[in-house]
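Anyone up for a design puzzle?
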């Protein structure tokens, strides 16, 4: 199965080269860095590291992810990784394995399972736990982390019809995948402080509050909409590797 790695990046010139360079050889077929309106030479640094670069000037995590998915139109699997160096590309084989062995349709990288949740700032950790609890209560899906390192079958992702273009994209993906009965699996992934720069979300109180609001709004929005429309049902969800959804 062909695999593309999408790396959204906003002003990550100090980190993006190291992230691309740390990707294990042969683990993915394409590396697509999406320059999301950077002003610091992120695109140049990514090209120097031999990544494909897509420019998406509309700032927003969802916009960047969508642009990367569109660029990787020939991939069977799409993986996502932040460009700040906080997640280790060496974990990509573990992340992709359940998809390649047909044990999952959607795989989430969990910092909690790796016992590294303490590395996440307290306010971000609280919001993450609250959203995870809501996901279980509203949808019956058990996840320990809503982190951005993840991989999904491209046909499922397209069927989810993603709409959240700012902070809500990661949560929307989980919610819609759960509603579509996709097989969701978590695997442990390592986490560390970002290599350079400042987080656009958890690095500031304002960013954290905005992101938290969008995550909760997205979770509740699709819960209220569940009775009015139906998500695609072409994928089954089952527990796999001891960390799947219930």
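Challenge accepted. My sequence:
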């Amino acid at each position: 199965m062909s695999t593309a790695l999408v790396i959204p990046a906003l002003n990550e010139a100090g980190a993006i080269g190291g992230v691309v360079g740390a990707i294990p050889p042969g683990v993915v077929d394409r590396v697509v860095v999406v320059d999301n309106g950077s002003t610091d030479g992120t695109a140049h640094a990514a090209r120097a590291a031999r990544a494909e670069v897509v420019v998406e000037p509309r700032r927003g995590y969802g916009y960047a992810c969508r642009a990367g998915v569109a660029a990787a139109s020939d991939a069977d699997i799409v993986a996502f990784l932040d460009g700040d160096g906080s997640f280790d590309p060496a974990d990509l084989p573990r992340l992709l394995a359940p998809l390649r062995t047909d044990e999952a349709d959607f795989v989430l990288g969990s910092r909690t399972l790796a016992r590294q949740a303490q590395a996440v700032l307290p306010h971000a950790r609280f919001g993450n736990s609250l959203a995870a609890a809501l996901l279980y209560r509203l949808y019956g899906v058990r996840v320990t982390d809503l982190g951005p390192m993840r991989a999904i079958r491209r046909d499922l992702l397209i069927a989810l019809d993603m709409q959240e273009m700012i902070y809500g994209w990661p949560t929307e993906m989980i919610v819609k995948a759960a509603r579509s009965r996709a097989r969701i699996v978590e695997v442990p992934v390592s986490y560390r402080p970002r290599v350079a720069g400042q987080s656009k979300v958890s690095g500031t109180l304002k960013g954290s509050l905005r992101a938290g609001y969008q995550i909760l709004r997205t979770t509740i929005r699709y819960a209220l909409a569940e009775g009015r429309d139906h998500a695609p049902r072409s994928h089954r969800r089952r527990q796999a590797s001891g960390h799947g959804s219930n």
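A detail worth pointing out: The beta strands are 3-9, 30-35, 52-55, 77-80, 106-110, 150-153, 184-188.
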